[in-house]
Amino acid sequence: MQGIGNRGWLAGVTLLAALLIAGCAAKRGPVPVEDRGTMANAPVSAAPAVPGVPPITTDPSGKPLPGIENYGKPGYYAVRPGDTIRRIGTETGQNWRDIARWNNLDNPDLIEVGQVLRVIPPVGAAGVPAMPPSTDVKTAAPSMSTPPAAAAPAVAAPAPAAAAAASAAAKPTPAIVTASPATPAATASGDEDVGWIWPAQGSLIAGFDEAKNKGLDIGGKAGDSVLAAADGRVVYAGAGLRGYGNLIILKHNNTYLTAYAHNRTLLVKEDQSVQKGQKIAEMGSSDADRVKLHFEIRRQGKPVDPARYLPAR
């Protein structure tokens, strides 16, 4: 009888456990799957996603993120985790102060993941200085591209009928007849013709490795000259990017940027124009294990092997 009682007790416990498991499963239900293609707050026109940027459209309080209506449009950048306004300026080849101004940022250090920022000058905006073609952005983000030349509408050729009327008029209209088309942005072939020189005289201590080293490491002594590898404009000068120390970034044209890292002293300022061979810094060991210059060439935002571009020594 005792054995029968034990078996009955065990059967009861087993049944109770089964009922509990079934009840939990019924309450929990299947794991919900978020359909990101049909979000209620998804940007209008189904703008393409930017790699690495979550499709967030509102902040924790439910308020739409600034600029979300421009998400995925050319010339705009969606803030990614870990981004700072200075890093965004570096990636897009723009001065971070200009980006802050174009987006009316009261505090440039306060930006949110998913927030969408303009990274090219507003067309025709009051108070925005005219910028030469070389400052147009080619690659603001992986999925962004340069929009058609903004100056085209302003210099569009008159319709045939209007041209005929102008030529037949008693008084010529020099403003229309003699107006020259705006100088187009540099062609791809022109952008490639940079005329590089070596940025330092020391020996090469580390070559390019796409996974481990995005440029060349050139040895030397503290205080050795660091030279601009080509004509350009300073778009960054500071120590705000971890791992680079005192860093200078030059923009040469629509296609190429160069970076000069680990300097002891910076001799140029942001927005300053520099000439090929000009001394822009002194070699150092800031944020590095030894004195060296880390030199990068970025083509349309992507690091390339500088040895393929620099002249043979």
From TrEMBL:
<comment type="similarity">
    <text>Belongs to the E.coli NlpD/Haemophilus LppB family.</text>
</comment>
<dbReference type="InterPro" id="IPR050570">
    <property type="entry name" value="Cell_wall_metabolism_enzyme"/>
</dbReference>
<feature type="domain" description="LysM">
    <location>
        <begin position="75"/>
        <end position="119"/>
    </location>
</feature>
<dbReference type="InterPro" id="IPR016047">
    <property type="entry name" value="M23ase_b-sheet_dom"/>
</dbReference>
<protein>
    <submittedName>
        <fullName>Peptidoglycan DD-metalloendopeptidase family protein</fullName>
    </submittedName>
</protein>
<dbReference type="InterPro" id="IPR011055">
    <property type="entry name" value="Dup_hybrid_motif"/>
</dbReference>
<dbReference type="InterPro" id="IPR018392">
    <property type="entry name" value="LysM"/>
</dbReference>
<dbReference type="Pfam" id="PF01551">
    <property type="entry name" value="Peptidase_M23"/>
</dbReference>
<dbReference type="InterPro" id="IPR036779">
    <property type="entry name" value="LysM_dom_sf"/>
</dbReference>
<dbReference type="Pfam" id="PF01476">
    <property type="entry name" value="LysM"/>
</dbReference>
